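By way of example, what follows is a protein record of this kind.
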Amino acid sequence: MKPRKSRIENRKSQIPTAWTAAADWYDNLVGDEGSEFHQKIIFPNTLRLLQLPHNSPILDVACGQGVFCRILAHHSYRPTGIDASPDLIKLARARNSSLTPNPSPLTPNYFIADARNLSFLPENHFAAATCILAIQNIDKLPPVFESISRVLAPNGRLILVMMHPCFRNPKYTSWGWDDQTQTQFRRVDRYLLPRKEPIVTHPGQKTGEYTWTFHRPLQTYVKSLRNANLLLDALEEWPSHKTSTSGPRAPAENTARNEIPLFLTLRAVKVQSALPPAHSAG
C-alpha cells in the first residue's frame, strides 16, 4: 500500500483538537510503552478483541507516538498510524528504530492526518481499525466513523476504547463516601446532554495550554456507528486493575473499583449493505 500524502482538513464547524501543543506533556505521560493502564488493561484486551490472522493490515486512529502500532507490529500485524499532531507523528517515526528487524514489512507507516478525513487512504483495505482513548477528544463523530468505514474492508472491525462516559464524565462525576453504609460510591451529576470541556495540559506549570474533551452519551456513539454502516457486535466495560491494601476504607474502595468500570470498549463490524439512517441525539 502506497497512499498518497495526506492533508489535514479542519472544517469551520469542527473544533481543532490536535495535541501538538500538548505533545511533550502527553509523551511524558505515556512514554515508550504506554501507561500502567495501557499495559495492564487496554493493550492486552484490545489485542484479544482484534482476533485477526497475522499480517492483517490495521489502522490505528489518533495513534499518538505510536505505542500501540509498535505492539501491533510485534504481534505480526501490518500497522498504519494516523494522528493530527506533527510532533507526535515525529516521535512515532523516531521510535520505529526499536523494532527488529528494521525496516521490515511490519514496520508501522505513520501519516499526519485528520481522523475526519481519511480520503488519502485506500478504500476497503484495512482488516481492522483501533482508536484508543482518543475518540472523546475529537469533535464530530459522523465524519470520523464515515472515514473509518470507508477504509475498512467488508466485515472489518473497529475497536473504540474510551473513558466510560457514564462514570468518567469530566467535572460531573466524582467519588463519594457514605458514612452510614460505609460505602464508596460514584456520583453522576450530568450524563445525557453532549458537551465539551477543556483539558488543561502541563498541570501545575500554568502554561495556559489546553485541549478539549467531548462528552457524549452511549446512544450517540451507537447511532453514529450505525449511520456509518458499523454495527455493534461487542461491548465490554473494564475496571481498574489497582487494589487498595491498607486503611479502613480499603474493602469498600476495592468493591467500588471492581463494580464501577473505568473504561468502555465498543467493537463494531462494517456491513456491506447500506442501512437506513438513525437519528442521533448529539
Observations:
- Confidence is low (pLDDT under 50) at residues 5-13.
- Residues 23-164+212-244+263-270 form a domain with the Rossmann fold fold (CATH 3.40.50.150).
